[in-house]
């Protein structure tokens, strides 16, 4: 675990020492942001163009949805520009609602269509194939959770993120969890079902809002530059397009793995909800507010699933 952290720190130090990076950082603020935004847009044009030429517009739309869902992490971090902290009650209400949103999205946009598609590919075995995928997804997150150094959500409510090293470990945790979320969006669009893909991407975006805030606030509290804190929170969400691209291309090229992939994404997200989010929202006697927040989030996504056509 220490080797992984050291490798990440070495890459970051190399980037900071690179002549081109140093040159960009000497530019005025607006020009500097213009360079970063321009590079990001250029990379997206290359990626989207390649996807459109190789696959079709559904894949392009799916990847775009995963990008926008990931950028929601940055949107959620914006309050850190104005506040150094928020109340535990409000933060855990937001997390509770995020858990409800994710539960509904997992059920209605991954498991139900996954079982239906599984029945088409393997008649009479769709339920078992998806169930196997769920267990594989949960085991994958368990392995990543045990192997990679990171901190959990409860460190935020306990105000124990008192050093940049601890915050970096928490950021790694957010990044780990964002990958299967992006993959779930990609898998859903890769199935060709635009409705489920759209509903799931909305759910992921809503769930990313409190995560972005959880990354940015501790950084600001330590005196970190507010805009850099927001930018770093945004970067944690941009791992989702990587997972989205993997999910889209995998199920597009090998359609028979779609039920397993949907089960995998569902199992990974259920692991995160049960292991990380719900225990945190029930800490310190705040369970009743979190419970109702979870139910409201679930109802909102259930309604969206029926309204969006």
Care to describe what's here?
It is a single chain. This protein has 309 residues and is mainly α. It is 83% helix and 0% strand. It contains 13 helices and no strands. It has helices spanning 2-17, 19-25, 29-54, 57-77, 88-121, 126-147, 154-157, 164-190, 194-221, 226-237, 240-253, 258-281, 287-307. Helix 4 (57-77) packs antiparallel against helix 8 and helix 5 (88-121) crosses helix 6. It is globular. The model is unreliable at 155-161 (pLDDT under 50).
Describe the SSE topology.
Elements: H1 2-17, H2 19-25, H3 29-54, H4 57-77, H5 88-121, H6 126-147, H7 154-157, H8 164-190, H9 194-221, H10 226-237, H11 240-253, H12 258-281, H13 287-307
Helix pairs in contact: 3-4, 4-8, 4-9, 4-10, 4-11, 5-6, 5-9, 5-12, 5-13, 6-12, 8-9, 8-11, 8-12, 9-10
- Mean pLDDT score, rounded? 76
Unreliable spans are 155-161
Regarding quaternary structure, what we see is single chain
Tally of strands: 0
Structural class: mainly alpha
Helix count equals 13
Taken from the alpha-carbon principal axes, the silhouette is globular
Q: Tell me the fraction of residues in β-strands, as a range.
A: under 5%
Note the gap between the termini. Answer: 46 Å
SSE topology string: HHHHHHHHHHHHH
The percentage helix is over 70%
Rg (CA only): 19 Å
Largest sheet: none
Which terms summarize this structure?
mainly alpha; 13 helices; 309 residues
In short:
The protein has about 300 residues and is an all-alpha fold. The chain is built from 13 helices and no strands.
């Amino acid at each position: 675990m220490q080797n992984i952290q050291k490798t990440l720190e070495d890459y970051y130090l190399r980037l900071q020492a690179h002549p081109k990076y140093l040159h960009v950082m000497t530019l005025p603020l607006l020009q500097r942001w213009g360079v970063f935004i321009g590079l990001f847009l250029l990379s997206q044009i290359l990626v989207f163009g390649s996807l459109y030429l190789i696959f079709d517009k559904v894949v392009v739309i799916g990847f775009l949805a995963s990008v926008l869902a990931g950028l929601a992490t940055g949107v959620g971090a914006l309050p850190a520009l104005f506040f150094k902290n928020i109340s535990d009650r409000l933060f855990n209400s937001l997390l509770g609602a995020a858990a409800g949103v994710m539960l509904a999205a997992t059920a209605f946009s991954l498991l139900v269509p996954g079982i239906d598609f599984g029945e088409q590919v393997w008649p009479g075995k769709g339920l078992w194939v998806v169930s196997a995928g769920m267990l594989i997804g949960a085991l994958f997150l368990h392995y990543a959770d045990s192997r990679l150094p990171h901190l959990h959500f409860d460190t935020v409510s306990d105000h124990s993120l008192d050093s940049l090293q601890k915050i970096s470990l928490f950021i790694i945790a957010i990044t780990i969890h964002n990958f299967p979320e992006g993959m779930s969006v990609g898998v859903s669009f890769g199935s060709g079902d635009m409705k489920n893909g759209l509903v799931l991407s909305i759910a992921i975006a809503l769930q990313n809002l409190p995560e972005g805030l959880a990354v940015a606030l501790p950084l600001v509290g330590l005196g970190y530059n507010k805009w850099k804190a927001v930018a770093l929170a945004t970067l944690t969400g941009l791992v989702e397009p990587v997972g989205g691209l993997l999910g889209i291309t995998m199920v597009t090229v090998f359609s028979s793995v779609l039920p397993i992939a949907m089960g995998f994404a569902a199992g990974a997200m259920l692991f995160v909800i049960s292991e990380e989010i719900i225990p945190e929202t029930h800490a310190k006697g705040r369970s009743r507010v979190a419970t109702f927040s979870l139910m409201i989030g679930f109802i909102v996504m259930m309604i969206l699933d029926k309204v969006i056509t």
